[in-house]
Design brief:
Blueprint (H helix, E strand, L loop, with lengths): L1 H10 L22 E11 L5 E11 L3 E5 L6 H9 L6 E6 L14 E4 L11 H12 L5 H13 L15 H13 L5 E5 L7 H18 L2 E6 L2 H7 L2 E6 L4 E7 L8 H4 L2 H19 L7
Parallel strand pairs: 3-7, 3-8, 5-6, 6-7
Antiparallel strand pairs: 1-2, 1-4, 8-9
The structure holds adenosine-5'-triphosphate and magnesium ion.
């Protein structure tokens, strides 16, 4: 992870060639290496629902990209396809410019954080966080224990190792879920509305935690949210989707430096980006159904 973090910091000095349409880039911070490339992806479910049509998305190393759009526009579908948890009906997904066989190899690991913490209720926090290492068959080693301790410390759950999920607040449960994703040392982190059910204060705090970890760990992040404010606060880019069929209709760069703090939330720049993204979302919501071919 040291290397990834270093390359992230280095990447912040460089210029990205990934210019979204209709937006200006004064300073593009990331490396130009694509981690995810979604090309011409359609998704038609078995019942005939066209969840995605012609989705195109490139996410570069070290980027924090949010997917924003009205309910039912296909955000989760797209994220699941990116994760390899569902097949595209048409089109292709590449990870690190190759097919799915590279996932899980060194430097190319992905982890998924769901909307609900999805912890095992009968297992203590430590055991829950250990689960991916159990599945990899490496739990129990000194190295694994160190990874679990580090992950729990980074999400602020030291001292809660022996607690059961029911003994944690909703925010703490989500932090345990993030720790569980962290122990696999992912390079690509996919998060599907992880903080949607939490109150604003807790969400703001977890947003700061995720940004801190993102910077420290050098993750590439794709983050689904319904919140314009959350998307702008967190992201380098906000990708806006429209529904029926789900498609990407806008891509707004949030060209503001990190670290971001509560000062950013009350700045005129933040308000300006929120206005721009809200307008894009409004346009997306007003887009009618595309005529069937
Ligand atoms: N397994 C499925 N079978 C059939 N249709 C599905 C399935 N999963 C999702 N859909 C449909 O695909 C469309 C996109 O759903 P998806 O869950 O990706 O939307 P979303 O943008 O994540 O919505 P939300 O913001 O409410 O979570 C919706 O019309 C939904 O009803
Ligand atoms: Mg969803």
């Amino acid at each position: 992870m040291q290397n990834a973090a270093t390359s992230l910091e280095r990447g912040r000095q460089t210029t990205s060639g990934n210019e979204p349409s209709g937006t200006r880039h004064r300073r593009a911070p990331m490396s130009s290496r694509p981690v995810v490339q979604v090309s011409g992806v359609d998704k038609v479910y078995g019942n005939g629902t066209v969840a995605l049509k012609g989705a195109e998305l490139t996410v570069k190393e070290g980027e924090f990209v949010s997917l924003l759009g009205p309910s039912g526009c296909g955000k989760s579908t797209l994220l699941r396809i990116i994760a390899g948890m569902g097949d595209a009906t048409r089109g292709s997904v590449k990870w690190w410019e190759q097919d799915h066989t590279v996932v899980g190899t060194e430097g190319r690991k992905l982890a998924f954080v769901f909307q609900n913490a999805t912890l095992m209720p009968w297992a203590r926090v430590y055991k829950n966080v250990q689960l991916p290492l159990d599945l990899e068959g490496v739990a129990g080693s000194q190295e694994s224990k160190a990874k679990i301790d580090e992950a729990l410390a980074m999400v602020g759950l030291q001292g809660f190792e022996k607690a059961f999920p029911r003994e944690l607040s909703g925010g703490m449960q989500m932090r345990a879920s993030i720790a569980r994703a962290m122990v696999t040392e992912p390079n690509l982190l996919l998060m599907d509305e992880p903080f949607g059910a939490l109150d604003e204060m807790t969400r703001n705090k977890l947003n700061d935690d995720v940004l801190r970890l993102w910077r420290a760990k050098g993750w590439t992040v794709v983050f689904v949210t319904h919140s314009v404010y959350e998307a702008v606060y967190l992201s380098n880019r906000v990708v806006v989707m429209a529904a029926r069929p789900g498609r990407i209709v806008d891509d707004v760069s949030v060209d503001q430096p990190y670290p971001r703090s509560s000062d950013f939330r009350v700045s005129t720049e933040f308000a300006g980006y929120c206005r721009r993204v809200s307008k894009a979302l409004e346009r997306a919501s007003q887009m009618g159904e595309e005529p069937a071919e």
